[in-house]
C-alpha cells in the first residue's frame, strides 16, 4: 500500500474514526484503525465493542485533488499514535506499507516509522442484511437526537433505558429517551409508511451528533435486526442495537392537566439555574415551582445550611386551576428548557404528586415529562 | 451593613477573591469570604492557608457610579455559594445584613437569603511590617513569572523548589524556578539598588498571573520576613513565603559550551511536540537531539512497541564542534520553547552528559537549562 494524501483531510478523517476507539485494550488490534487504499479512494475504519465508523477519502474533493493512491493495500495501525502524530505533521503525507509489519509516514522532513498489526485480528463488524431503509435530512435527525438523548439513563440497571428509541409508526418518526424519572420525546411527520423500531445505545447517538450532524446532507438509515447504519456520502456509522422491550412512550405521557401556564423559556431557564445553585446541595437537586393566583410562578430552593433562593416570574397566560406547588429535579427541568429552542414554553401540571409536562407553546412535536420529587 | 452595587463589578470581584478559597474545609469559616462596606467603598477578602486576596470596589469607576453604601458593616459568607449565585443574578444587587447571622441579596425578582458566619472566625492574615518595597510594571512582572514558574517542582520533596525565587541583587531583578532537573531564569535591570530575596509558593505566583497581570498598572511589592504583598490600585495579594535556602542560581548555569547552534524557535517547538507523541511513552519523555556536520539538527524519539519518529531541521548558524547527541525530557524542552517569545533561539551544548542551555539569540536575560536524561 502506498498513497499521498492532503494533510488536513487525512488528519480530520483519522481523528473522526479514532475518537471512539479504545486506547487501552487487552487485545492490541482492538486499539487499531484499519486503513484501506483502493483505486477509488481511502477507507478508514475504527470500532469499539458497540459501534463502527467508516470514513471515505475520495481522490478529489470538489475541484481539488486530495489523494493519490500509488499502490492498493490495507493495514491496521495503533489509532492513538497515528492520530496524534498525523495532526502535528507539517504538510502532505506520503504513506507507505513497507511489509506487513511496518509503515512509514513521511511529511516534509518528518519520518514516522510505525509498527502495524496483523490485519486478520481487526474486529470489523459483519455486514448484516438490512431489510428496511429510510432517508432523511441529517440536520433534522441531529436535532431530534440532541433534544432527547440527554434524558437516557446514565446507569445500566435497565439496559433498554440507556438507549434512545427510534421508531417509525405509520407516517410518524418518534425519537425518545427516558431514565424512568424523566422523558424527552420528539416526533416528526414522515413521508414513508412503515413500522420499525430500534433502541440505539446513547453512546452511538452521541457519536452521530459529533460526526454527522454538521452537514445538511441526507442521511440513509438502514435498519436490521441487531444493527442500525447511518450513512452519508463519506461516513457511515454502524451500531449494535440494545435488545429488549422499550417502555410504551404513549403510556408515559400524562393526560388531564389541571393547570397550564405559558412562560418565557430563556428567563425561566435562568431562574431554574439560579435556584439550582442551592438545589445541587440536595440529593435530587430539588426546586419547587408554585403558582398562586395564576399570575406569578415562584421558583424556590433551599438548604438548611446555606439559605434560600426565591424568585417570581410573570406567567404569560394560564388555563385551569390557579394554585399548585410541585417539587422537581432542577437539572431535569434545566435540560428540558435547554433542549427547547422556541421562545415560549407551556408547562402542564397534573396535580401535586403528578408529573409535569413541558413543551413549546406552538407544537406538540416535542415534549419533556418530569416526575415530581417527594419532599420530606 | 447595606449596599447597592453594580452586578458585573460585584460578580467579578467576588469571583476573583473566591477562586482560591477552599470550598470544603473542616472549619466552615475557612470557606468564607469577608465583605466590608465603608464610606469609601467595599473590600472583599478571601484566604487559604498560603495566600490572601483583597479586592476593593470604589464608589465610582471612571465616571460611572458602581456602588452606593447605605450602612457600613461587615460579614463573612460561604464563598462558593455567594460566588455562584451572584454571577447568575440579572441586575444590580441590593445587599443587606439583617442581623449577624443572615444576609439578603436581592436582584430584580430574585431574593437570596443566606446564612452568614461569625466574623470573629475569619482567618485573616496579620499585617506584617514591610521594611522594603519596590514598584514595577505589572505586565513585566507577569512576563517574568509566566516565563519561569512552570519550572518549579510539582512535588514537595524539597519545599524550596516548589517556590519561585524572586531576588533583587544590586540593580538586577531575577526571577527563577527549578525542580533540580531544569531551571528557568529571567533577569531584568532594575533602577532600585538593594539586596532582597523571597521564595514565593508557585500557587501564589499562578494566582498573581490570573489576577494582576492583565492591566499595565504598576505593582507595588512589599517584602517582609515571612510574607510578600503584591498590590495595585484595587487588588492586593499577600502570600506567605517558603522558608529555607534556595539553590544558588549562578551555580546552576553551565559554563563552557562545546557547541552553540541557532534554530527557528517555533519550528523547533513543533518538531519537539511531534517527537513527544512517542516520547510520552517513556518515563522521562526522552527525545534525542543530534547535530551532525553542523548543518542539520535531528530530533528523534522511539518506542519499541510503537515505532520511531525522526526529523531533521536546518541549523541557522553554529559555533564550535560539529557533532553531538544529547537526550532530554521533551516536555521540559517544549516548555522552554513556549516560554521564549523571540523568533530565534540559541542552544548551547556542554557535552554528552552535560545540561543544555536554551535562550533567545539576542538576550541573555532569559535562560532555560535542562539536564540530560540517562538513556539505558
TrEMBL record, chains A, B:
<comment type="subunit">
    <text>Forms a ring-shaped head-to-tail homodimer around DNA.</text>
</comment>
<dbReference type="InterPro" id="IPR001001">
    <property type="entry name" value="DNA_polIII_beta"/>
</dbReference>
<keyword id="KW-0238">DNA-binding</keyword>
<keyword id="KW-0235">DNA replication</keyword>
<comment type="function">
    <text>Confers DNA tethering and processivity to DNA polymerases and other proteins. Acts as a clamp, forming a ring around DNA (a reaction catalyzed by the clamp-loading complex) which diffuses in an ATP-independent manner freely and bidirectionally along dsDNA. Initially characterized for its ability to contact the catalytic subunit of DNA polymerase III (Pol III), a complex, multichain enzyme responsible for most of the replicative synthesis in bacteria; Pol III exhibits 3'-5' exonuclease proofreading activity.</text>
</comment>
<dbReference type="GO" id="GO:0009360">
    <property type="term" value="C:DNA polymerase III complex"/>
</dbReference>
<dbReference type="InterPro" id="IPR046938">
    <property type="entry name" value="DNA_clamp_sf"/>
</dbReference>
<keyword id="KW-0239">DNA-directed DNA polymerase</keyword>
<keyword id="KW-0963">Cytoplasm</keyword>
<dbReference type="GO" id="GO:0003677">
    <property type="term" value="F:DNA binding"/>
</dbReference>
<dbReference type="Pfam" id="PF02767">
    <property type="entry name" value="DNA_pol3_beta_2"/>
</dbReference>
<dbReference type="InterPro" id="IPR022637">
    <property type="entry name" value="DNA_polIII_beta_cen"/>
</dbReference>
<keyword id="KW-0808">Transferase</keyword>
<dbReference type="GO" id="GO:0006271">
    <property type="term" value="P:DNA strand elongation involved in DNA replication"/>
</dbReference>
<dbReference type="Pfam" id="PF00712">
    <property type="entry name" value="DNA_pol3_beta"/>
</dbReference>
<dbReference type="InterPro" id="IPR022635">
    <property type="entry name" value="DNA_polIII_beta_C"/>
</dbReference>
<dbReference type="GO" id="GO:0003887">
    <property type="term" value="F:DNA-directed DNA polymerase activity"/>
</dbReference>
<feature type="domain" description="DNA polymerase III beta sliding clamp central">
    <location>
        <begin position="137"/>
        <end position="248"/>
    </location>
</feature>
<dbReference type="GO" id="GO:0005737">
    <property type="term" value="C:cytoplasm"/>
</dbReference>
<dbReference type="Pfam" id="PF02768">
    <property type="entry name" value="DNA_pol3_beta_3"/>
</dbReference>
<dbReference type="InterPro" id="IPR022634">
    <property type="entry name" value="DNA_polIII_beta_N"/>
</dbReference>
<feature type="domain" description="DNA polymerase III beta sliding clamp C-terminal">
    <location>
        <begin position="252"/>
        <end position="374"/>
    </location>
</feature>
<protein>
    <recommendedName>
        <fullName>Beta sliding clamp</fullName>
    </recommendedName>
</protein>
<dbReference type="GO" id="GO:0008408">
    <property type="term" value="F:3'-5' exonuclease activity"/>
</dbReference>
<comment type="similarity">
    <text>Belongs to the beta sliding clamp family.</text>
</comment>
<keyword id="KW-0548">Nucleotidyltransferase</keyword>
<feature type="domain" description="DNA polymerase III beta sliding clamp N-terminal">
    <location>
        <begin position="1"/>
        <end position="124"/>
    </location>
</feature>
Amino acid at each position: 500500500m502506498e498513497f499521498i494524501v492532503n494533510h488536513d483531510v487525512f488528519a480530520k478523517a483519522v481523528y473522526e474514526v479514532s475518537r471512539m476507539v479504545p486506547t487501552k485494550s487487552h487485545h492490541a488490534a482492538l486499539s487499531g484503525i484499519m486503513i484501506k487504499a483502493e483505486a477509488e479512494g481511502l477507507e478508514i475504519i475504527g470500532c469499539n465493542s458497540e459501534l463502527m465508523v467508516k470514513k471515505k477519502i475520495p481522490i478529489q474533493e470538489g475541484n481539488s485533488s486530495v489523494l493519490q493512491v500509488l499502490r492498493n493495500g490495507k493495514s491496521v495501525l495503533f489509532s492513538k499514535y497515528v492520530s496524534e502524530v498525523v495532526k502535528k505533521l507539517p504538510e502532505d503525507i506520503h504513506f507507505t506499507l513497507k511489509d506487513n509489519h511496518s509503515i512509514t509516514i513521511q511529511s516534509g522532513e518528518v519520518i514516522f516509522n510505525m509498527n502495524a498489526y496483523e490485519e486478520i485480528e481487526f474486529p470489523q463488524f459483519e455486514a448484516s442484511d438490512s431489510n428496511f431503509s429510510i432517508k432523511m435530512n441529517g440536520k433534522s435527525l441531529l436535532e431530534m437526537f440532541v433534544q432527547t438523548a440527554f434524558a437516557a439513563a446514565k446507569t445500566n440497571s435497565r439496559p433498554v433505558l440507556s438507549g434512545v428509541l427510534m421508531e417509525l409508526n405509520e407516517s410518524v418518526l418518534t425519537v425518545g429517551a427516558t431514565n424512568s424519572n424523566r422523558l424527552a420525546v420528539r416526533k416528526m411527520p414522515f413521508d414513508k409508511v412503515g413500522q420499525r423500531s430500534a433502541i440505539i445505545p446513547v453512546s452511538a447517538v452521541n457519536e452521530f451528533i459529533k460526526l454527522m450532524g454538521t452537514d445538511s446532507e441526507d442521511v440513509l438509515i438502514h435498519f436490521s435486526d441487531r444493527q442500525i447504519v447511518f450513512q452519508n456520502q463519506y461516513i457511515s456509522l454502524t451500531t449494535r442495537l440494545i435488545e429488549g422491550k422499550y417502555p410504551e412512550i404513549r403510556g408515559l405521557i400524562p393526560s388531564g392537566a389541571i393547570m397550564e401556564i405559558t412562560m418565557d423559556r430563556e428567563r425561566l431557564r435562568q431562574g431554574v439555574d439560579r435556584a439550582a445553585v442551592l438545589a445541587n446541595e440536595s440529593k435530587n437537586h430539588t426546586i419547587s415551582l408554585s403558582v398562586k393566583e395564576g399570575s406569578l410562578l415562584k421558583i424556590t430552593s433551599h438548604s438548611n445550611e446555606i439559605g434560600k433562593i426565591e424568585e417570581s416570574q410573570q406567567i404569560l397566560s394560564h388555563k385551569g386551576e390557579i394554585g399548585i406547588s410541585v417539587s422537581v429535579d432542577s437539572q431535569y427541568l434545566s435540560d428540558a428548557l435547554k433542549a427547547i429552542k422556541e421562545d415560549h414554553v407551556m408547562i402542564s401540571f397534573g396535580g401535586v404528586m403528578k408529573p409535569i409536562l413541558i413543551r413549546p407553546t406552538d407544537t406538540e412535536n416535542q415534549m419533556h415529562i418530569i416526575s415530581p420529587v417527594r419532599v420530606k
